[in-house]
Amino acid sequence: MIVDVAKKVIRLKIVYYGPTMSGKTTNLEKLSALNGLKLMKIDTKGDRTLVFDFSTKTVQVGNMTASFALYTIPGQEIYKDIRLTVLRGVDGVVFVADSQEHRLGENVEFFNLLKEDLPKVGKRYEEVPVVIQYNKMDLPNALPFEVLEEEINKDKLLSVCAIAIRGEGVAETFSLLEGFLLSKLERMIG
């Protein structure tokens, strides 16, 4: 969180984190389309997303304006340094899980990686709000919500079912995290 008292602006950073091809990019594409926002995309040669960055709507919090910047991390292991760079300064995380049965182990592994990565960038997992999104729930091999919760959401975090490609659950996921961060800001500002 960056507070510019002179300009009365609070900048918050949200990172969409999860395994490769889980739907992080699709989430930001749909969210930007819903809100009429600009989206910057940086892809690798294989059309895999490295980083997204865009500012969402601004929200008044007391006499300050809160502005959100959203990013995705690259899911591929060869980009782990970029992943840590993107995670620096994070205020909240959307963990995007691919709900397909054959991706369960990878989702659990990546969630554990999130817990390892946060301290590397000076954050404590327990202090960074995280919302889990179970994406691709429309696919025939998607695991039931209850199984995903039991296997991935051991800490009983807020979670949402989604079909990001259709825009379902995308705004709801962001709104949960946004609401949490705004209420935290309101308590800080008084």
Any overview of this molecule?
This protein is an alpha/beta fold and 190 residues long. The protein has helices spanning 24-35, 80-87, 104-120, 145-152, 170-189, and strands spanning 2-4, 9-17, 40-43, 49-61, 64-72, 92-98, 130-135, 158-161. Strand 7 (130-135), helix 4 (145-152) and strand 8 form a beta-alpha-beta unit.
Gross morphology is: globular
Return the average pLDDT rounded to an integer: 88
Question: How large is the share of residues in beta strands?
Answer: 25-35%
Record field, number of beta strands: 8
Number of helices: 5
User: What is the makeup of the main sheet?
Assistant: 8 strands, mixed
Task: Provide the helix percentage.
Answer: 25-40%
Quaternary organization: single chain
- Secondary-structure element series: EEHEEEHEHEHEH
Structural class: alpha/beta
Estimated radius of gyration = 16 Å
Low-confidence residue ranges: none
How widely separated are the two ends?
Answer: 17 Å
Notable characteristics:
190 residues; alpha/beta; 8-stranded mixed beta sheet; 34% helix
List the helices and strands and how they pair.
Layout: E1 2-4, E2 9-17, H1 24-35, E3 40-43, E4 49-61, E5 64-72, H2 80-87, E6 92-98, H3 104-120, E7 130-135, H4 145-152, E8 158-161, H5 170-189
Parallel strand pairs: 2-5, 2-6, 6-7, 7-8
Antiparallel strand pairs: 1-2, 3-4, 4-5
